[in-house]
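Response to reviewer comment R2.3. The reviewers asked that we include at least one raw input/output pair. We reproduce the pair for Short-chain alcohol dehydrogenase here without editing.
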Amino acid sequence: MSKTIIITGTSSGIGFVLAEYFGKKGHKVYGLSRKHTESQYFRSIPTDVTDNNAVQQAIAEVLKTETKIDVLINNAGMGMVGAVEDSTKEDILKLFNLNLVGAVQMMSAVLPKMREHQFGQIINVSSIGSEMGLPFRGFYSASKSALDKVTEAMRYEVYPWNIHVCSLHLGDIKTNIAENRMRTKVSDPYKTIFDKVYSLMNSHVGDGTEPLVVAEYINSLLNKNKWKAHYYFGKFGQKIGVPLKWILPQGTYENLMKKYNKLD
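Raw output as returned:
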């Protein structure tokens, strides 16, 4: 059955692959991103998701031709690297405005139509890194963790209308995310260690999972009748970090993370 699917952050990377994947499957797909994107498989609506007026206008545009909105995939987001000490208030607010506020504004815009039809599926794209404070990515971890907690709260609030919400925690995916990360100024005390971690970080992305595999996994989620609050998708070495954090003593876990990030 064809669904009406809205995906944010579709100008490149995972978002573009998702939009084309579901469009090829016969779904009515609308891609919202700041840049217009040419594709025969989905309709692009230029939208800055941090601008609530723009979000409302985009949803109104969708509803000119659609009677329902079945799925929202909140994929738009941004990475940020740098030491906590060096991060400015402006950097932090910019990151949270996109990764958290933008996602909330999108959900608020589609929920009335989902309630009207007594059905909806919302996937908030998070990160395995939201479950732990990653070195030199502290605020990225924090922004995604905040989105996770909002997702958990919303599951209680919208379940009476058969609306399902989940966080999809992704590991490293092979995309151009390194080109689009916000990078704060790195002060001298951190420079040597940061350069080592940053190089490793980029190599992990280069060896990451193909976006098409993510699309296939999301398709399997959309076919489920019931959702868990959290799904973890990525290579074993990254996914295993989540249960280990739950069961290991903090000091032991930190030592493992230091080794993984070559900080020891």
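The mean pLDDT is 93. The domain at 4-260 is CATH 3.40.50.720 (Rossmann fold). Further pairs are available on request from the corresponding author.
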